[in-house]
Amino acid sequence: MTSNIKTDVFTRMVKLSPRFLLALLLLPIFAGLISVLLPAFGWAPELEQTSIGLHGFYALWQTPGLSQMVTLSVSTGLISTLLAFIITLMILAAFFNSPWLNRIQRLLSPILVIPHAAAAIAVGFLIAPSGMISRLLSPWLTGWELAPNGLFPHDPYGISIILGLTLKELPFLLLMALGVLAQPELGKKLRQQHKVALNLGYCPMTAFFKVILPSLYPLLRLPILAVLAYASASVEMPLILGPNTPPTLAVAIMHWFSDVDLNLRIKASAGALLQLTLTGGLLALWLGGEKAVKVLFSGLMTNGQRRYGSAFWQTITLVLTTLVIAFILLSLIGLVMWSVAGFWRFPAVMPDQFVLSHFQNALMQMSEPLFNTLAIGIITTVFATIITLLCLESEQLTAKPMSRFTSLVIYIPLLVPSIAFLFGLVWMQQLVHNQTSFFNVVFTHLLFVLPYVFLSLSSSYRRLDPRFAHVAASLGASPAKVFLQIKLPQLFSPILIAIALGLAISFGQYLPTLLAGGGRISTITTEAVTLANGASRRTSAVYAIMQMVLPLIGFILAWLLPKYFFKSAHR
Amino acid sequence: MPLTKFWQVNSRHYFSCIAFFICITLSVSLFPTAIFAYTEQNSNLAQQSRWQKIEQTGENQDVYFYAWGADSQVNAYIQWAATQVKTKYNINLVHVKLSDTSEAVSRVLAEKSANNNNQGSVDLMWINGANFATMNEHTLLLKQWANKLPNFQYTDPVNNPAVTFDFGIPTQGMEAPWGLASLTFYYDNLAINGSANNQLPTTLDELLVWSTQNPGRFSYPKPPDYLGMSFLKYALVMLHQQSDETIKAQLNQMATKQNTQQILMPLWNFLNKLHPTLWRHGQHFMQNGAQMRRLVDDTELSLAFTFSAPEVPAAVKRFDLPKSIRSYAMSDGSLSNTHFVAIPYNASHQQSAQLVANFLLSPQAQAQKQKPSVWGDKTVLIQSTLSSDQQALFQTDTPHPSALPLNSIKRTLSEPHPSWVEAIMTGWQTRYGVSQ
């Protein structure tokens, strides 16, 4: 009897979970968008403005430098995504089926967990006029005794932003692609096809573009679109690396929203709509470009040509890859050195002395942000993991794959620029409850953590051999028992990886933490961004390092724990 | 002897006159004193019991202190204050670190518009100038509390308008003074080495000449940053030194459509000459003073300025600035102002916030704050109101070589009316906000 009731509860819970997931993701985003839409058209009762009209947009058009803001947002977003995508393809093509691919993956994957803010800080240290590159060349080559008048970071063309975004998104795309290739059946098929092409005399890179890419690309499309959407509307990178006369649109919107003059919120809402249109336009442009490429190059696929200057491209890729890795390594070395540097006058390559006082001072003030970071991260991730598991289980229980609509909705938080709906969301949250900023932050983080946890878990869950479950069920095990005792143990390792990923995503959130917490909830990331544009280079290095170490610990645990458990199981 | 007699008669009159006057003077002078003494005693008692009530209700609560948080020294000082009020009143002082104080202002405004009139999230905020003017205008601040804090007496409010006026606006007890700031310059003496075309500029005019000879080595934070605005105000006040008194007087009055053009024209002319010589050719400006300090450490800039002079030696001690840094004050004048703490009208923990504000004003807290190794922010307390024990708290050791030498500030310039901030900011934004 009792087990029957339990089963019912479990099954009902599982069957309800996809709807719950939909509500959890859609409601806040739509509520947020509506709360931005209304003020944009002049309806803001809290500002005693209830006349519907376009004055928000007029104010927006009259903003000095609006066209520059838009150009900057569009160009940095598009170029960085394109660069990251192309370099990813070149690396994949040049090193496909070679041991180097794994080595590059191992070198780059830690970058994935580095939050954008920390990456921006590290890149800034490298390319500044007094940065590592300049120090390595001075004064013996350049003759500079004082740091030169430079362009980077904060150059008006957004090159620094593009550089930062490209370096940060490249590992993401690469790992996504490798993840696709790691799927047993598809990967095996593609590798075999690649071998066939090689045997037919295709050079490796050409074989990749003609044989692998057409099958690989559709699976990469969503991650690429997510990268594009993020890059066109992100705040951290442009805030730390970008120009400010004027900044990118997203940064400007953020400033307007937090301005003393509340009437600017109407303009900000109009700006948020513009941002939404821009990002939407960029996504459409990308999809259109895809079609164009398909039409233009479909002939090339079957023309039978075996090579296109392959030695040349192979060398270029090698140089590019080395450059990217060298760039990342130099940034990280610079970051670590700054965090322990005493006096370090330009153009010395090494600090005069190494001290630990920056770490000591920072750690003394870090307890609260650290606690918040961990608490928010853990609560959010555990919750996200449970919902994801239940949704995936419902898929298997009902023996129906998730509807196309639902699987699209999961990506919505990654595709809608957060700046466009977060302000509305915060406004709604303030209406509902006022004093629980901690809960608000957790709730908002969930929107961004859920998609990644889902992405990370879904493929392994769907790949589970159903026969185990069938055998257990035929032996009389309830669905709950099958779920808890058969499926979850098999998924131990993927679940840990998903949790580590979820934690990393939560740790890195800047705008959602800042807005939903009303600035009251400080995390390592909000502190790092606040410090990056001010304060001591040494202190911000310490915070950036903390930002990197936290998610790394998560991943190391996710990697070590299964080994430990499996070892004890083997005994 | 008619003369003698006359004298006797007169002197008798004279004495009685004197006696009469003495009587009158005595009674006139004593009577009100007695009344004042009486009322003062009464109000003292009332204030004491009022304060006791605040102490009782304010204990054991949280205080959310919204304060600019991009300086680790300031943050560390606030943490120190938090441990103190924790032991004293069991108050949890939570520092909400802002990158711009206006964030807190807009938060309170938003709460007011959402009809949240007593559950506000901001309990105490660090504020002055334009932000205070905005909050005052929208009546977002609690009134008549700061002047009743027990420690307020040490600021000698009767003779010290610096603690009762914020950029010319009377504070009406809405703000408790916290610290005093003057615009102080600092430079890298390895970079400005005193050679022919590289002499240390000590006036605004010399600054322009020096920057032209050494392009790219000076700049100021982008308005509306507080420090950047201060530099522009310093320039504005200096540029009007030779102007007519009637024009000069406009600086202390509201900026209007009519006078803005005339008053600000000299500033724009000056900036048009200065900007091409600045860091990044005046096309990009740093966000704030801390970033400017970092650029000096990077040797990109050779000359910079700050509103809190002790920050400079403190930064050198933390390795955040090179050893070759020296501080000085401009000989043509130093812009000076007071910064305050205020309580929003809807603060959830008003009594506790007052306890914290009173603690921040105590000789102990002010002396700690003035220590160069802690924060080095100049105290608002007047030494003559303190006991000798309290004065001893403020004794410091020999100054650091990079510190501002004692008594370097020869001439203080007072802040123009806060409405000029908006006028300068708007004008600046349209002229220089978008690089060509």
From TrEMBL, chain A:
Pfam families per the UniProt record, alphabetical: BPD_transp_1 (PF00528)
Keywords: Cell membrane, Membrane, Transmembrane, Transmembrane helix, Transport
Compartment list: Cell membrane
Regions that span the bilayer: 66-95, 107-137, 157-182, 268-289, 310-341, 370-392, 404-426, 438-457, 491-511, 541-561
GO CC annotation, single: plasma membrane
Name of the molecule in the record: ABC transporter permease
Similarity-based family: Belongs to the binding-protein-dependent transport system permease family.
Species for this entry: Psychrosphaera saromensis
Ranges of residues in domain ABC transmembrane type-1: 66-286, 370-558
UniProtKB/TrEMBL annotation, chain B:
Record Pfam families: SBP_bac_8
Keyword check for Transmembrane helix: yes
Superkingdom in the source lineage: Bacteria
Keywords, comma-separated and alphabetical: Membrane, Transmembrane, Transmembrane helix
Membrane-spanning ranges: 12-38
NCBIfam families in the cross-refs: PRK11622.1 (NF008633)
Name of the protein: ABC transporter substrate-binding protein
